[in-house]
Design brief:
Blueprint: H1 11-26, H2 30-36, E1 41-44, E2 50-53, H3 58-74, E3 78-88, E4 91-101, H4 102-108, E5 120-124, H5 131-143, E6 148-152, E7 158-161
Length: 187
Amino acid sequence: MAPLTIELPAQEDQTEFNLRRWSQITADTELGRELARIEGRIETDRHGYIIMSPPAAFRHGSYQFAIAQLLHELLANGRTVTECPLSTADGVRAADVAWISHTKLERIGEDVCLREAPEICVEILSPDNTRREMAEKKALYFAAGAEEIWFCDQEGWMTFYVGSDSAGEKASQTCPSFPPEVQLTSG
């Protein structure tokens, strides 16, 4: 069977659609209120269809918090967020953790979802994540303007991608003091 190639829309065109659709989904309407009651992650595909995932495992959330806390402490000139909705060429995705500089945030503004990816987007890997899925997400984030994509494996080991051509580095360029392994504390 021949491989299937899907051509995604231009980022700018998709962003305008994503902003309109995400506004509908998050509005104070019956749909928005119903979705707000659902526990888990909600994203969209490039057609605006809702993609729902169950809540992440406890350990996943622990790494999410620890990484966000470290980024907040180590990078003072920006904002750290979790479950950050951002527009991609394949719909609205939510980075587990993101760091965006004050400069970029002032330029793009705070909309219902970010028009461009933050400088750093972090994904905490789950047992069900496939290499292909994570490669696609990494490509989408870089195409949306991310400078670095970080993956945290299930043991807390970090891999830093510092450009779309990166094969995975041991350290971040934006935050070189970020540790190569995230330790979960009991306190």
